[in-house]
């Protein structure tokens, strides 16, 4: 039977990763552990940076905001899933789903811009070391944060308002563990051409421009480092970028993995697992990457603990 239009949507159903009850218990324990590790790890990074005056520099200023964004990003997606698993429920209200879509877009966009700002910071530090304090002053750092916040907020609001104009059918099952914009648009009965064009256009601009900025920054960094006469200087310069570069590869690598998996495989379960790698794994691993590869963070954590 053809699904009928439904004007008043009460709720969506999040199908999650598995229908098996025993497997759901395992998933609940796994996701709860990952969420607690994410919150604790990123909170320790924030506390270590705020408590150590030696880390009150632009690089760690951006890192503390990245850690806070990771906590919020993970909270937006994981908490509702844990609540549903605990209550043996799959429902999420229409407004709750729309709010979740908005926050996922907001925090994903914010992380994207913060990584670009951190790449620019490393570019200035290595390519223009004598002018670093002049260029990366507190006003510019705050301005970059505010610009990231406003742009991400506008992006999230734009897509949310465009979803509000859609009418949905009675089949409201989302084969996912959270409300993802692409999955919500697929459930609409009305024409979604404008929504899809907007998704591709905005993603290309707001995702492509920061990525090009990161590529440009590291192209200049590599060129500058290779021109250094001493091997020790080259190693020191590369070591300051290692942690950030690892986080960049993790974030964009998993994001491209989600895009490719959704385009290649028709299986919604495989797409959901790929989205798990994008939304949950990077926020959990980022504190480990920075604490293991960064001597300043290690010392600050030891002092804090």
Secondary structure elements and pairings:
Elements: E1 5-6, E2 11-14, H1 21-51, H2 58-87, E3 91-93, H3 94-127, H4 132-135, H5 138-164, E4 168-169, E5 173-174, H6 181-186, H7 193-226, H8 231-264, H9 268-279, H10 281-293, H11 295-304
Helix pairs in contact: 1-2, 1-10, 1-11, 2-3, 2-10, 3-5, 3-7, 3-8, 5-7, 8-9, 8-10, 10-11
Task: Describe, in plain words, how this protein is organized in 3D.
By secondary structure, this protein is mainly alpha-helical. The chain is built from 11 helices and 5 strands. It has helices at about 20-50, 60-85, 95-125, 130-135, 140-165, 180-185, 195-225, 230-265, 270-280, 280-295, 295-305, and strands at about 5, 10-15, 90-95, 170, 175. The strands form 2 sheets. The chain has a 3-stranded mixed beta sheet with strand order 3-2-5. Strands 1-4 form a two-stranded antiparallel ribbon. The radius of gyration is 21 Å and the shape is globular. The N and C termini lie far apart (about 60 Å).
